[in-house]
Specification:
Layout: E1 23-31, E2 34-42, E3 46-53, E4 58-65, H1 67-70, H2 75-87, E5 97-103, E6 106-112, H3 128-146, E7 150-151, E8 160-162, E9 168-170, E10 177-178, H4 203-206, H5 213-229, H6 240-249, H7 255-258, H8 264-273, H9 285-300, H10 340-349, E11 359-363, E12 369-372, E13 389-393, E14 396-400, E15 405-406, E16 410-412, E17 417-419, E18 421-425, E19 430-437, H11 448-451, E20 457-461, E21 464-471, E22 480-488, E23 491-499, H12 502-513, E24 516-517, H13 529-555, H14 559-581, H15 590-616, H16 619-645, E25 648-652, E26 660-664
Antiparallel strand pairs: 1-2, 2-3, 3-4, 4-6, 5-6, 7-10, 8-9, 11-26, 12-25, 13-14, 14-24, 15-18, 16-17, 18-19, 19-23, 20-21, 21-22, 22-23
Helix pairs in contact: 3-5, 3-9, 5-8, 8-9, 9-16, 13-14, 14-15, 15-16
């Protein structure tokens, strides 16, 4: 295998070295086990070299602390800390650190060479799918670091690197903050020290307050803002201190205000990351991704990642393009004591108490209208072998091609339930299991604990409409796993396809097209136009009533006024929840309709609590109530995403629909 290309203007770590032209070192210099090939970049404190590890022939980026800075108090300690923190992390979206060593008293860090340099040259030049891909990769890396109690504290385009396959990696943990769970000596920022980059700095960081995962999320909000708008917020201020103070005290204008063509949901998501109060932002990187994934699928469909990876800066026709998603699933916390969900709970438990602020920011539900679209047919693929063989079990019968063979009855490994038919191919690498579960009577099919953030999509296979879920892959080389469900009068038919190749996945759907059910009548749960119209009417009524109230709440300057408006909003949302719950939703939409009603009730409860907090003048209760409203808004969006997955589509989004509401917080003092 040939070595990766070495493009010019490439830096593998840019915290202390800026992008610049590559300059030759004029001869081979050997440092420890490494031969320096050339200089990649030079900054105020360090130089980054392209080097080759003798013996292995591995190309690395070698970061050298300058001799002057090596003698300065604290410089070497920061260098060592960067190596120890980054070296404790192993993730596809984090630059790998191989080792730290000293040569003639000069510290070096050997790390992964990231071929295409930082994200900085691409600012403002990415399409929306690529921006979403960058955000997914960064959030995946941050989520992994969170499990070790590590906060980056200097997230910016210079520290987001672009790898050969087009995904991104986080670099430079030199000023990261390690908690006790990191297994690394924690450290505190010196009193009064401004640590980080002001243009990307969270308010609590600028003011010397407690930092946590929410701090990195604010910085990521600035990165996202810059990618879409083309410049950072407050770009008209040139003093670093002035920029930091504006981040601490002034709201960031919505992305959609500068770029009206921006998707409203994406603009609102970025606005949530840029809220001043840490407790009002998503509780963790994984939680932020759960919200963003719904938006990404709505904007680009389930295959949006096909256009998400960053392209090479120069043509490389032989380079394969990756479709591997960022790695969110299966990440084990230090010591094996839990996964990402446990880390989220630990992060939420360690969140700082809310600070009093004069600004009130409310997140209310985005109310959309729905229509009905035709279902797409399942992918037929290229039929290579006829369905010449047959298998049957109980009321089920299918036909299948060679080289598949029948393995008799078995189980669906995802659910552990019985499968009447099991077909295998390629020594078991490809498997299709089909069974009928009489206890399942919902098209949702599976509990959230199994499917995670996956959404069902309606797909027509043969004469029937199945719900299909593609489960997250376990890794770059893992087989794809897809679940299918068909609601019948006698329970739910379930099919589980594990496919190592696209051809095997196509075979799974070819086989299911041949399915015959004896004594079971499939229920029609395709999108229902009458239900869509009724839901539209209910949400339109809520929009017309709640919109003016929310606008007034944004302007409210006294506690009594806030309390009165919040109470009226609580009543409006509660009434809407009752109307939605009473709708005659069909078999397919029944579960998601219940989720819409539940989300509306949650918003209503949040506004009710907001009114009570305003009357009492309780800042803490006020912030908690605002969070409840925001949570209801996110839950409502997820419920609507579920309807989209069942074949419903957004029909309208009125300009006056509730978005980010804010007011002069009398309750906040």
């Amino acid at each position: 295998m040939g070595e990766p290309p070495v493009p010019s203007k490439t830096v593998s770590d840019t915290s202390d070295a800026s992008d610049g032209e590559v300059s030759s070192t004029g001869g081979v210099r050997r440092v420890g086990r490494y031969e320096i090939v050339e200089e990649l970049g030079r900054g105020g404190m360090a130089t980054v070299h392209l080097a080759k590890q003798v013996g292995l022939g591995r190309v690395v980026a070698l970061k050298e602390l300058g001799a002057f800075h090596a003698s300065r108090p604290g410089a070497s300690e920061r260098f060592i800390r960067e190596a120890r923190l980054a070296g404790s992390l192993s993730h596809a979206n984090i630059v790998t650190v191989y080792e730290y060593f000293e040569e003639a008293g000069t510290p070096f860090i050997a790390m992964e060479y990231v071929q295409y340099g930082s994200l900085r040259p691409r600012v403002g030049g990415l399409d929306v799918s690529q921006v979403l891909g960058v955000l997914e990769g960064v959030l995946a890396g941050l989520a992994h670091a969170e499990t070790f109690g590590i906060v980056h504290r200097d997230l910016k385009p210079e520290n987001i690197m672009v790898a050969l396959d087009g995904h991104v990696k986080l670099a430079d943990y030199g000023i990261a903050k390690a908690g006790a769970s990191a297994g690394i000596d924690s450290f505190a920022t010196s009193p009064g020290a401004l640590i980080g980059t002001p243009a990307y700095m969270a308010p609590e960081q600028a003011l010397g307050g407690p930092v946590g995962p929410w701090t990195d999320l604010y910085s990521l909000g600035v990165v996202a803002y810059e990618q879409i708008v083309g410049h950072v917020p407050f770009a008209d201020s040139h003093s670093p201190l002035a920029v930091a103070m504006r981040h601490a005290n002034e709201p960031v204008p919505p992305v959609a205000e500068a770029r009206p063509e921006t998707d409203r949901g994406l603009s609102d998501w970025i606005a949530r990351l840029l809220l001043k109060e840490p407790e009002a932002r998503p509780r963790s990187a994984a939680a932020a991704w759960e919200e963003l994934e719904v938006i990404a699928v709505r904007m680009g469909g389930p295959l949006w990642r096909r256009d998400a990876r960053l392209t090479a800066p120069v043509p490389h026709a032989s380079r394969p393009r990756t479709l591997t998603p960022a790695q969110f699933g299966g990440e084990v916390a230090p010591g094996g004591g839990g996964r990402v969900g446990d880390a989220r709970a630990r992060a939420a438990a360690g969140r700082p108490r809310p600070r009093p602020r004069a600004a009130l920011a409310l997140l209310a539900a985005a109310l959309v209208g729905f229509g009905v679209v035709k279902l797409a047919a399942g992918s037929a693929g290229a039929a290579t072998a006829p369905l010449a063989r047959s298998a049957a079990g109980g009321p089920l019968a299918v036909r299948y091609p060679a080289p598949w063979s029948s393995a008799g009855p078995g189980v669906l490994s995802t659910l552990g339930t019985a499968a009447a038919i099991v077909l295998v191919a390629h020594a078991g690498a490809d498997r299709l299991a089909i069974g009928l579960d009489a206890s399942l009577e919902s098209p949702a099919l599976l509990p959230a604990s199994i499917v995670g953030g996956s959404r069902a999509e309606a797909v027509k296979l043969g004469g029937e409409v199945f719900l299909r879920r593609r489960l997250p892959a376990g890794g770059a080389a893992a087989a794809s796993e897809t679940l299918y469900g068909l609601l019948t009068g006698g329970g739910t038919l379930l099919a589980e396809c594990t496919a190592g190749t696209p051809a095997a996945a196509r075979d799974c759907e070819r086989i299911q097209r041949s399915l015959r059910l004896r004594g079971r009548a499939p229920l029609d749960y395709r999108p229902d136009g009458a239900y869509a119209a009724a839901l539209d009417a209910a949400t339109a009524e809520l929009r017309s009533g709640a919109g003016p109230l929310e606008a007034a709440l944004r302007r409210a300057a006294t506690r009594p006024r806030q309390a009165g408006l919040a109470g009226r909003l609580a009543g409006a949302y509660a009434a809407a929840a009752g109307r939605v719950a009473a709708l005659a939703a069909g078999a397919g939409a029944r579960a998601e309709n219940a989720r819409v009603a539940a989300a509306l009730r949650r918003v209503a409860l949040g506004f009710g609590a907001l009114g009570r907090a305003a009357r009492a003048g309780s800042r803490g209760a006020f912030a908690a109530a605002r969070g409840a409203v925001a949570g209801g808004a996110a839950q409502l969006e997820q419920a609507y995403a579920g309807l989209r997955g069942l074949g419903y589509r957004d029909a309208s989004l009125a300009p006056g629909s509730p978005g980010a509401a804010g007011g002069r917080g009398a309750a906040g003092g």
